[in-house]
Recover the amino acids of this structure.
């Protein structure tokens, strides 16, 4: 996400605190979840991350924060569609993110 659109991402700035509180109240390792979807500062979140985040919101704990987070996904995806700078930022994030995932899952055979 480009700086202009990240600064205009008021839903995220206003609700990230509430999101943290909800995750806290579930006694979950909230940062582990956050880091899985936002491995680097949110301004670098790509389409890939948004789509994973959106599927996480469909089940279990994710459903409890769905009302907060679904607008983030909608906004994030729409900026990637409409803004060339956002698109470039989202492409930039993709490979480092995948590399990290491969390192973390090195105990499995999923190296493709
Ligand atoms: Zn933008």
């Amino acid at each position: 996400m480009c700086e202009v659109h990240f600064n205009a991402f008021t839903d995220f700035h206003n609700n990230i605190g509430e999101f943290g509180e909800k995750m806290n109240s579930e006694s979950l390792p909230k940062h582990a979840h956050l880091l899985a979807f936002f491995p680097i500062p949110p301004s670098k979140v790509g389409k890939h991350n948004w789509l994973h985040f959106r599927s996480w919101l469909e089940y279990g704990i994710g459903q409890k924060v769905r009302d907060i987070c679904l607008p983030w996904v909608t906004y994030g995806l729409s900026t990637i569609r409409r803004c060339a700078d956002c698109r470039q930022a989202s492409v930039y994030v993709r490979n480092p993110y995948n590399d990290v995932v491969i390192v973390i899952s090195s105990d499995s055979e999923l190296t493709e």
